[in-house]
Each structure stands twice: as structure tokens, then as C-alpha cells.
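Hey, resending since the last one bounced:
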Amino acid sequence: MEACVTLTIRDVRVRTVRLSPEQPVETASGVLRSTPLVLIDLLTEEGVTGRAYLRCYTSVALQPLARLVADLGPLIKGDAAAPAAIEQKLRRHFLLLGPQGLVGMALAGIDMAAWDALAQACGLPLVTLLGGAPRPVPAYASLRSMSPDVAAAEAEAVLALGVAAIKVKVGRGDLDVDLETIRAVRRAVGDDIALMVDYNQSLSVAEAIRRVSVLDGEGLYWIEEPTRSDDYAGHARIAEAARTAVQLGENCWGAHDVAKMIASGASDHVTLDVMKLGGVTGWLRAAALVEPAGLPASSHTFPECSAHLLGVTPTCHWLEYLDHAGPILAEPIRIEDGHAFIPDRPGSGLDWNEDAVRRVLTR
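The C-alpha cells again:
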């Protein structure tokens, strides 16, 4: 990949929004009733603006994350909008503090915005700049509800998107509660739809092993994050005990965590999260590790950017479709015939619907 132009960073503009989805996201760890996002505009002297957003899950972290991103602006003002050079500079700045948590999220946001700006300046979709081409990417629908009846109705509704796979969250009660939800969704969608479950790290290793011995009889496609995400040894024990595939990776903080996960045999598949991996740059490093391991790679949220990245990921598997930012985007990602469609226009495809943004800005 060759740089088409040189862009100079003029400023970093940061705004915060809090969306209120019609249907909250239920997880074993609690209910997410709002969607707090940090919106990033990387302004350049040449008039090109790179965009990205960060999802911080809890409103408690919204303003601290926004301030951190804003404070990065003066550190890179006047620098070239060159993602690798920006990353090296900012990582040196945070070397003693460490690149995880809010720091890692902030660095990822700057990285994503810089790649978006560069692709726009080159007049290319991000996937093309990275050596691929716009194409449909297989998508699965991630459900918001955990209760059997509501999840079943939601699953039946998303079949209109043409998806061949659906994921439902479990782990809010005992195994019987899990089975009730799983079987309700299965009855609603039939046997031809791949069905995954996500425990969101809610079980002990011993309890996970006990449950997977039963879940192996449910015809599931994968069991995601049954125990604490950084317990690779524990996940390896669960994966060894289960006939069903174990899925892990969305909470890996960069390629080094991905390397540890692979080495431990913790997962049969891998989920890549562009924000936690360190942006586009971090995703590319992680995908390069996943390919020789032969692990099918799916995305975690951020469908707009993830579609481009899956388009150049050798073991591309599924794009997770759970739309968080769509209400404030000029053109939300399009899911049709079970696929996400990468926009054939310059950049990552992000553009704000400013009227919608103004309505949900936090003060």
C-alpha cells in the first residue's frame, strides 16, 4: 500500500452522544439501556476529515474517554496523518502507563480516523487502500434480548435480513434458563440457521465445563466467552472438554493478547474488535497472527469499519451485526441477503447525520 497524498493534522474534534435504543442489550453482566459513544473528527490542513467512533459501554467512562482523546490532539497537531507513525509516537508517550483500557481505546480511535482520512484522500474505500476490494461480507445477527419469548420473536424478525446465523446471550441464570432461551430461539428460526450463544464471561471454568457437556447436545455453532476473557488457560480447558467450538477474542487488548490466546489453544475461532485491538493497524497485526493458526475470524460490533477489515482478513468468517451507531450515521451499514455491503466510496464509509447527532449530544 502506497501513500497517495500527505495529510497534515490540524486538530482533533471530540463529541459525546448517548443513544437510547428502543430495545436495550441484555447480557449476563447487566442490561445496557443506553449507548454512549465518543465521536472523533480528525481534521487536516488539506480539508479532509477522518472519522471514527468509540463505544465505551458505560456512561461513567464517556467523559473521561472523550477528554483523553481530546488531549491527544495537541500531541499530534502538525504531524502527518500517517497511522503507523502516529501509533509509534503515542505509544511512546504512554509507555509507562500502558496501552490498555481507556488509553488503548483512545489510541484506536485516532488510528481509525487517520486511516479513514488517508483512504478519503486517496479516493479509495478503506478495503481497497488495504489491498482488497469492496464485496459482500457474510453477517450474523446478534440479538439484544435474553428472555425466551422476546429473543425468539427478535430472532424471527431478523430472518428478514437473510442471515444464516444468529447469536443469543445466555448466562443470566442456571443451565435450565440457558436451555429455555436456546430452544425458544431454535424453534423460531428452524434447524437451518446456525445458532451461537454468548456467556459474556459469566461462568467459572468448572461451571462452564459442566454446562458445555449439556450444550454439546443442542447443535450450537459456537459458545462464546464462557469464562473470564483473559483466562486463556481456563478457556483452553473448556475448549478441550467441549465438542462445540469455543469463541474468544473480543476483549484482546492488541496483537500480543491474540498471540497468547492462540498459543494457549483457548479458542477454536476468534472474534476481532477493532477498538480493543488498536484500530485498523492493530487489527491487521492480529489478522496476520490468526491466519497461520487457521482460526476463522469474525468481528465484534463496529460493523462499518469491520466490514472493510474483514474484506482483507484471510480467514474472514462472520461480521457481527448489532447496530449501535446507525441512528447517527448518514448511511448506516446495509445488511441484505445475509451479507454486509462495503460502501464503494472513499474512506471507511462513516459520515455523521448532524441533525441526529445534535439531538443526542451530551452536555
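The radius of gyration is 20 Å.

Sorry for the duplicate.
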